[in-house]
Amino acid sequence: MELTGRQNAILEIVKSMGPITGEQIAEKLSLTRATLRPDLAILTMSGLLEARPRVGYYHSGKYPHHIVAKKIHSILVGDIKSVPIVVSEQCSVYDAVVTMFIEDVGTLFVVREGGLLEGVISRKDLLKTTLGGQDIQKLPVGVVMTRMPNVLVTHAEESVWSAALKLITHEVDALPVVRKVVLPDGSDKYEVVGRLSKTNITRLFVELGEGD
Ligand code: ADP
């Protein structure tokens, strides 16, 4: 059975968050409940999802029978992640550009002491600042980065498929791989432990094609 992108997205949401109501799934996908109704009906009729009144949808434990899909869903972010390249918020735009060249990456993660995630900076963020004619030797990346809580993240136990869906849906090139830490004051933070980029996924695609 071939699932559509949206049906796969629903399945992933229910797998990681179920039991979950149709309303909540719709909210996660920024769609209306009515739009999802046919997809939920197909997933329920095919036996992939089960629905219980007043509880919601939960995963039946069955998976799409497609062998490639099965394999892809079994690979975790932790299996293919790379080393994160990080800078501090005070790092200048100039030094960030140099770091991108030296480390050969297109996305830098901005962290504070302890490797705690503060933001993310992409090639276009840096290019944009050069258009403004500002002194890039003095301007800190903290001024131009995308800041928490607006940074999309993944974690080592998430499936590569679900992380790839985030990259495509939100049109970004990389996700920081994080681990949740609780600070002494009780607040939750993310420690950056890796990097998942479109390159990791393309490499995996090539390896799968080679039958590795
Ligand atoms: P590029 O600038 O090379 O097109 P992206 O598409 O990744 O790279 O970045 C586009 C915008 O999205 C930038 O403003 C960047 O700060 C932001 N961005 C990049 N990665 C993330 C992420 N993981 N979460 C949230 N925003 C991101």
**The CATH fourth-level homologous superfamily of the largest domain:** CBS-domain
Ligands bound, unique: adenosine-5'-diphosphate
**CATH class type of the largest domain:** Alpha Beta
What is the subunit organization of this protein? single chain
Runs with pLDDT <50, length 5+?
none
Secondary structure category = alpha+beta
Q: Order of strands across the biggest sheet?
A: 3-4-5-6
* SS summary, helix count: 9
> What is the CATH third-level topology name of the largest domain?
CBS-domain
Portion in beta strands: 15-25%
The gross shape turns out to be: elongated
Mean pLDDT comes to 92
Short description:
This protein is an alpha+beta fold. It has 9 helices and 8 strands.
What does this structure look like?
There is one protein chain. The chain is of the alpha+beta class and 212 residues long. It has 2 domains: 5-70, Arc Repressor Mutant, subunit A (Orthogonal Bundle); 77-210, CBS-domain (Roll). It has 9 helices and 8 strands. Strands 3-4-5-6 form a 4-stranded mixed sheet. Helix 2 crosses helix 3 (33-45). The protein starts with a helix and ends with a helix. The model has no long low-confidence stretch (mean pLDDT 92). It binds adenosine-5'-diphosphate (ADP).
Task: Name a few traits of the molecule.
alpha+beta; Arc Repressor Mutant, subunit A; CBS-domain; 2 domains; four-stranded mixed beta sheet; two-stranded antiparallel sheet; 9 helices; binds adenosine-5'-diphosphate
